[in-house]
């Protein structure tokens, strides 16, 4: 069945089955339980205030689709600055919500959730052993563009968000309190282990978000050295989503592709507790613009296995804690970063955290990244950094950042090109260097097959 919604000329007393007999409001949609294969079509050029939370499930053969019809601009879902304060009323916090639902596809909407009266106050705390931070807001906690959540459910399946414009989400800047898109599995201690399969976030424009552009997270994440013991029921200030409740259970078939992300207060793309996530062909610009909220990076997995980050362009990431284009974070295994273009990032190209294994970083270009290009923590799990081009345009930029070194990572066939003549580089002495090319560098590391010549900028097929 196909249903039409027209906020200008529709009426909720209509049957909704033709453009001439369209429904009017989101409330009518939310009161309807849809069936496999149904389509919900919102009229272009219309603004729909409130929350979109249709009921029902599709099937693998017949997902339920939400899209647009007519001519003009994308139809707008305007959450109006709605927010949630506790787990119990999380439904109030998202402009578009799916909760314990499967086989839904959203295509071609504009989504916003902005409160013009909300402004977060930064407090300078002067007490001993304290730190300055944004004031927590017990009554204005969670605000999202799209929230996709499974809770004590088992395995949730098939939610696709495509060709949407998600913008202007102003919220508290604690992690998972203000996201363009949040996909999350939650639960209770002793509850049903929960994960998800087949998440596609593709060709969206996500801009002006007060924490993270795209977050994929799970509370089912313990047992690999990562545990967050927030009590979701303690008080209104506790961060409900930044918690763990049970053993690690990886989610599968997560693809984040072809999105454009602009101006996020914190991270651009973050995935957690997934297996084989593919992050490709995204353009990510001006992340981490609110540096007072602490360490953030543009694109990174956390406590995840087999993540592939490829053909992305990441630029103008702010800050130096962390501020990198890419991060392989704690308890990640078998991560790959390849064919990406990183440039003009204040924190450098790459952060390698501890408790990671089998990292493969190759055929990337780092151009005019700042500070130290690679921030490596003590790591004995095997890291290969090979066939990359590091164009060190920024004055006095270093290859490495941070105090750590490791015996178990190799730099091979990379090009290190300095624009200043006779630069002195602080190489990590325990790393292995094999066949790298060095230009305008006064001191070479212990590289038995080093080449001293100016390498050409590679014509890799990176980026969009």
Would you kindly provide a written description of the structure presented here, covering whatever features stand out?
This protein has 464 residues and is mainly β. It has a domain of 320 residues: Pectate Lyase C-like (3 Solenoid). Helices cover 1% and strands 40% of the residues. The protein has 1 helix and 45 strands. The longest helix is centred in the first third of the chain and has 5 residues. The model has no long low-confidence stretch (mean pLDDT 91).
The assigned structural class equals: mainly beta
**Overall average residue pLDDT:** 91
Radius of gyration: 23 Å
Largest sheet: 15 strands, parallel
Q: Which percent bin holds the helix content?
A: under 10%
Q: How much beta, percentage-wise?
A: 35-45%
Ranges where pLDDT stays below 50 over 5 or more residues in a row are none
Assigned CATH architecture of the domain at 34-353: 3 Solenoid
How many β-strands, per DSSP?
45
The number of helices is 1
Q: Name the shape in a single word.
A: elongated
Looking at the structure, the CATH topology of the domain at 34-353 is Pectate Lyase C-like
The first-to-last residue Cα distance is 37 Å
What would CATH call the class of the domain at 34-353?
Mainly Beta
